[in-house]
Write a structure and sequence with these properties.
Strand order of the largest sheet: 2-1-3-4-5-6-7
Oligomer: single chain
Structural class: alpha/beta
Number of strands: 7
Order of helices and strands: EHEHEHEHEHEHHEHHHHHHH
Shape: elongated
Distance between the termini: 67 Å
Number of helices: 14
Strand content: 5-15%
Helix content: 40-55%
Length: 308
Amino acid sequence: MQLGLVGLGKMGGNMRERLRRAGHEVVGFDFNPDIADVPSLEAMVQALAAPRVVWIMVPHGAPTRNTVLELAGVLSEGDLVIDGGNSRFTDDIENEKLLAEKGIGYLDCGVSGGVWGLDNGYGLMVGGDAGNVERAMPIFDALRPEGPQDEGFVHAGSVGAGHYAKMVHNGIEYGLMAAYAEGYELLEAKDIVTNVPGAFKAWTRGTVVRSWLLDLLVKALEEDPTLADVSGYTADSGEGRWTVEEAIANSVPMPVITASLFARFASRQDESPGMKAVAALRGQFGGHAVMTVAEGKALRTGEASGGH
């Protein structure tokens, strides 16, 4: 099957290679000419036989919306566009409307697997019309992991459902990572535990907390047993925030995922304005000593000792 693929970065490039290994013909476009197969979107479309299928794999937001808009101008009635990036599900609804005016179909596909997907396959969550899903199934089958189809692929529902499922998947990922991280910090803090990396590696077989994320943490600890050269500053790519926003909109209690998102915000602060306010209040109502910034820094770095 032929496929046009827009965006050949870490994920897109590996997806192109996996599809080619499965015998599909992929014509890829990227703004980096060193990795592109063709010089433009127009050239990519011209290289595909109608009716065409084009997969978008670019950053969410404006880059994806602009790509959809440009494709609407060069594709033909009967063609199909699949957004495999991390778009917000509300963008999918607008993208479908735009393309439908030209008679072009649209699917959204949440993709999980990261840089390991080339060899392991990708978990796929798709939203859209069943006929369009069936039409693109050879591509989905090539990308998903080997084995039963429903253990790596789902037609989750109507347009937007694929990215919605992927959004929740990423929110769960936030919570899982935070739980492993809290366990790591406690083990590091306890003096009787002298082999923290070994404890995590021992959990990878036979325990109820084994997972691929745990395997990856073990790999990171093998490379740097105390994570001495890793900054605690942790970014977020959007899906965690969207998950919490949707929890609020739907009155769904979500304390674990919300706390894990807020922990990332806290990781970016050298000094917390909120905790400064707490310290100042303790001084006001209880007469407790209020440390200066320098005193607090000294305590954090072990240059001085303090009570509880």
